[in-house]
Amino acid sequence: MTDIAPEAAAVLAFILGLAFGSFLNVCIYRLPRGKSLLGRSRCPNCDQPVRPYFNVPVVGWMMIRGKCSECRNPISVRYAIVEALIGVLFAVCVLKYGVTLVAVKFAVFGFLIVGLVFTDYDLHLLPDAMTLPGFVIGLIFSFFVPVGGTGFLERRWGYWFEFLPFDYRAPGMSLLAAVLGAAVGAFFIWGVGEAYKRVRGIEGMGLGDVKLMAMVGAFLGVKLTVLTLVFGSVAGSLAGVAAMVTVFSKRVQRYSGQSARAWASAKLVLRHYEMPFGVFLGVMALVSQWYGDRMFAWYLALYQ
Ligand SMILES: [Zn+2]
Fold first, then answer.
1. What is the CA(58)–ligand 1 centre distance, in A?
2. Which domain holds residue 91?
3. pLDDT, tens digit, for every residue of 52-111?
4. What's the number of domains the chain is made of?
């Protein structure tokens, strides 16, 4: 596979990605609802099986012009968008990393994250069926694709790896970095969730977010996981403020300017507002993975 032209490899990766995107749509719909992944795709409205030739990614959706061929109800353009997204993701991974295990690792990571972002957006659920296998897959990849930022581990604990009967140092360090990344991500979110519960008396962050960050940490290591947490928190807070302002200004209109009444009413709405925090964490995990190292370099250069 090494003598294949990069452009040709990217086109093949794109087509493979479309097929995986089509499978991901099935996962996004069925996993949070506890349904089996086996069985033919069906129209979400009339439950009729989708005809095989309409199952072709993106093209199929265009052929039926976004409408079920049986009941004529609209089928969301999102199915085609998810397929195209995964196609582009696979192609970009191959263009950046070539036909390598690194490309496979980040294609798998992106695939899982896109799936989780959409299930969290739809139903505020991050299914264990995605996060837990994702966590294990992340740990396994750490043996073959070194997780970054192992320098301080080498200095601190590298000594212990000298006792092993074979050269286990590099993969062992990488696994340790992945485990530490997972621990940092999971414990931070768990702690924030607990603090939130004590202050406001309601569940702010579920265990789904904790498991999501364990998976992110296993793939990205400590440094990029911390970056994900920082960016995710900032984005989540901004979205929270935006939601508050939107609800409040709508209430002000409804109560024709009586701001005290509007505020009381808005507070009621916001008390039950649950933010899909996994959406922000997931998107920021991808941003950190693709741009994090460049951002760190740029930030450090400011102080030189
Ligand atoms: Zn239908």
1. 18
2. 1-99
3. 777 788 888 888 888 888 888 888 899 999 999 999 999 999 999 999 999 999 999 999
4. 2
CA of 50 to the centre of ligand 1 (A): 8
Same domain, 55 and 150: no
Specify whether the CB–CB gap between 46 and 73 falls below 8 A. Answer: yes
List, for residues 11-65, the tens digit of each pLDDT value.
Answer: 999 999 999 999 999 999 999 998 888 888 888 888 888 877 777 888 888 888 8
Which pLDDT band, with edges at 50, 70 and 90, does 251 fall under? confident
160 and 299, same domain (yes or no) = yes
Contact by Cβ (8 Å): 145, 182: no
Cα–Cα distance, 235 to 257 (Å, whole number)? 30
Beta bridge partners of residue 67, listed in sequence order: 74
Q: pLDDT digit string (tens) for 271-296?
A: 777 788 999 999 999 999 999 989 88
Tell me, yes or no, whether 132 and 260 share the same domain: yes
Evaluate whether residue 112 is within a structural domain.
no
For residues 64 and 135, state if they share a domain. no
67 Cα–ligand 1 center, Å: 8
Cα(143)–Cα(79) distance, rounded to whole angstroms?
34
In-domain check, residue 113: no
Ligand 1 centroid from CA 74, angstroms: 8
- What are the tens digits of pLDDT across the range 179-210? 999 999 999 999 988 888 888 777 767 899 99
Q: What predicted TM-score, i.e. pTM, was given to this entire model?
A: 0.89
Q: How far is the CA of 66 from the centre of ligand 1 (A)?
A: 11
